[in-house]
Amino acid sequence: MTEGSLESLIEFALRFYPTGFPVEEDELTEPVPAHQRTPEHARFLAAWNKALNGTDWKNLMKGLERAFPGEGIGNGTQPYVSACMRCFLYRTEPLPGGERLATRIAAAVSVLAPFYIVYVTTQVWHPTSTEYPMAAAPHPTRGDAGDESFHLQHFSSPQLTFEPPANVKQEVDALERQIEEVLGYRRFPLAFAGVQLPGLRVGFFNGEAPPTLLDALFSDNLAHLP
Hints:
This protein has 226 residues and is α+β, with helices and mostly antiparallel strands. The chain is 26% helix and 24% strand. It has one domain (6-23, 33-217).
């Protein structure tokens, strides 16, 4: 079986998630759900513990700071609530109507298999002004407020693409090089991303259809980043 083949990726998923245990049959009175008392879930937790206790991720984040001096670097990892660690380079630019376009060049690195994906999200920040009560404590130092109002931000839903636009190709290439050099990981074959895994209980999955390989080995919510 070739590493990176569809069969090997499915085997990774089967190693860390039990088959069966449909959500509708969960016994809510149990202190620990049945699917979390399985060998597969124990391996899932062990994989996360190993990733969090190791130094590879810290070395990667330090490498990104050197590779992108002066740029905003973020860590979007949420331990145990997905199957990946995430990092991103972010920048904003003004739009004609006073909004700002936020772009994040992101990477998700699986803690279950030696694969990563790089993707880009964009989001529009819509500023609004609101009167700040005169009797309140000192004005917040947010936005450009210098009078009796301050700026709030309303955010559009982030849009995700696995096909980064040409204007961020240099950053995407540099991010991929860092991951491959520091972690030794390979690109996840996106051709298999939508392969469904019927009957597999992926604890953090919130969808209605069966989870996919992308959901199981990474996350079902890659678009939302801090």
